[in-house]
Fold:
Amino acid sequence: MSNYELYKHCVLCPRACGANRLEGGRGFCGEDAALRIACACLHCGEEPPLTGKAGSGTVFVSGCSLRCVFCQNYQISRYGMGRALSGEEFAALCHLLQNKGAANINIVTGTHAAPAIAGGLALARAGGLCLPVLWNTSGYESLSTLSLLDDVVDVFLPDLKTLSTGRARDFFGAADYPAIAAAAVQAMIDAKPLSFSQDGALIQGVLVRHLVLPGHLDETRTVLEWFARYAQGRALLSLMTQYTPLPNRQPETEKPASLPERFVNEAEYETLLRWLEELGIEDGYYQELEPGSAWLPDFSQAEPFPGGLGRCIWHWKTDGAVALV
Structure:
């Protein structure tokens, strides 16, 4: 069976909604079988071993299988910004990023489009793509879908958002997230041992990301303890303190009462650093504490990322079909 047949009764993400996306039906992700891309950027805001000199070749896929109430990419995850590309055009986009000096090809939120992306990456490899491919994911992955990526993905960048079912339900719209994400991250670690190039670039392996929620450090403590027990020495950690309140921008009409409406403060930040030392977590990265909205993209703009964080190479609104190479 062709991988594209998986769109016929879709179970690509753990929602297993069963939509016939081949016939134009839309899954829980909001997408049919078309591969829709919002933009491709040289992104300089990723972790050091991913950024390189020119930036990570970040490709933002439209749609998402989660419902994060503070999603910074809500314009594409919920509101459908993006343009459909064929497999050949997607391969050409990867070549374009490579030609512009990208350190890698970084696919953001591609789970629901895994068959098309895997096919496009195979075409890109056959056409001369030689960069590492990164799978930048929420962590909400089914093991069967991950198996589609074995031959085309080199580095996994999963979130481990929470290990609390209540918080997962209220903030991310998926009470089953903790068990599914933990199993998925463990499978990624088993599949991709860490490997670096001579200049320190991550060319294979897993980097686990966790976004700290102000006022909910108990969630972070649990995730850090999980990482220390199951992933230390086998994966990298990225502890992120860039949580930004989104007044009047949340796609949800009803927000949880416990949704943070502030940035991480200095006392919380010092606690995080103390926990890293206490748990002996040394392999990875943590962000400097810089409250502000500099991280917030606007995908309606030709340059979605402010402050020089990225340089757009292709944009759904201003660019047409990608030239075949």
